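User:
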Amino acid sequence: MANNNGKVYLTRERLVELENELKELKTTGRAEIAQKIAEARGYGDLSENAEYDAAREAQQHLELRIAKLEEILSRAQIVDAHSLPNDKVYILSLVRLQDLKTNQIIEYRLVDPEESDFEKNKISITSPIGKGLMGKKVGDIVTIKVPAGTLQYKILEISH
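Assistant: Predicted structure:
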């Protein structure tokens, strides 16, 4: 699944979050930016109007985010974790690992890059750790090269 033919694999929950964000940006976000631009125009000479420049820049950022969300949603495919087997590590697998250097137990959920969030232990299937775990089984010892060095994990459990 590393080359997924342009598809973005998302959970239903994440798809709804992105759809809601897009709707919010297209309605409220655009209206707020238009209001700021109108106010800034009222301050006079546009060539030396910092408020106007800032509002226009904010508008560009908003439109870029809207375009990115539309592009992601156009390629989105919903994945249901419960329909995937637990015999190997796949996208949406919850993998329980033992760090063989520290003996620490870690859990990662493997997700599409669009859904990754390291703070929530959601790692991308395209990250070094994600690539190293994909297709592995319980009991496998996995050695993964990361920018900080080499990690070595034992896969203890795979679930969804």
